[in-house]
Structures are given as C-alpha cells and as structure tokens.
Fold this sequence. Notes:
- By secondary structure, the protein is of the alpha+beta class.
- It is built from 2 helices and 5 strands; from the N terminus they run αβββαββ.
- The longest helix has 18 residues, at 3-20.
Amino acid sequence: MNNKEIGKLGEDFTVEFLSSRGFIVLERNYKVSFGEIDIIARKGDILIFVEVKTRRNLDFGMPVESVSFEKQNRIKKIAEIYVKNKQLRFKEIRFDIMSIILSPKGEVLNWEYLPNAF
Length: 118
C-alpha cells in the first residue's frame, strides 16, 4: 500500500465519520497552486476545514504531530482563498484534524478527531 492509498483510506474514513455526525462534505482535496485541503465540510453555520493524517505505524510519531505550524498557516491561506472564491459567509470557520492509525491491512486501528485543532 503506497502513501496515496493510505491517504485515501484515511480520507474515506473521515468523510464517513463526518457524514454520520451530520456534517455535509462540500469538497475533497481542494487544490490551489501551493497546497490542498483534504476535506471541507459544513455543519449548520460552521465551515470546517479538515486535515487528515493517516499512518500505518508510529515510527515517526502520532499523525497529528506532522501538522506543523507552517502547514497550519498554509491551510489557513487556502481556506481564505476558498471562502473568497465561493463567496461564502459562515458564523464560524474551524480547522480540525483527523489522526488515524491503520493496520498493515489498511484497517483503522485507532483514530482521534480534534475539532478546533488550530
């Protein structure tokens, strides 16, 4: 299983997680020239940008630890572009992280959803 496949499994799990909790997924893999946002969703008057980090082991630490300050700032800039381009208005904009650990077979062993992560 390559990194792209691992990432897709994590994103698929996260979309299912969000949908089952009443979120409406608006976009997946929203790209601009300098990066992307994995998932953009809404729930009521809240617009949520979700960074999904998926790993098969903890050799490099917990998945959430790889969302650096630089990565957070890049996501915020992409979010600004998204809101401006779509001309959206929400009472709240939130940045969440989904951290997932997979088994060697690609099954979700552990996950943690962090609302308002940054």
